Known about the structure:
By secondary structure, the protein is α+β, with helices and mostly antiparallel strands. Helix content is 23%, strand content 28%.
Amino acid sequence: MDLELKAVGAGRTLRIYIDRQPDGVTEDCATYSREVATIFDVEDASPRAAYVLEVSSPGLDRKLFKPAF
Length: 69
């Protein structure tokens, strides 16, 4: 897993990259997104600034974090 926070102007994007071997990521992105969004809302993780949450898996246009097995 890796995190990336990008700020562009007044907006912020938090990207969470997840990976799972050997089956890969299937419904995990949606599950992680719901869980993280709920935690952030309860904990008020970003009280003064709006953000966009993206949960993604590594791929052709996204960096890889683990070598291939």
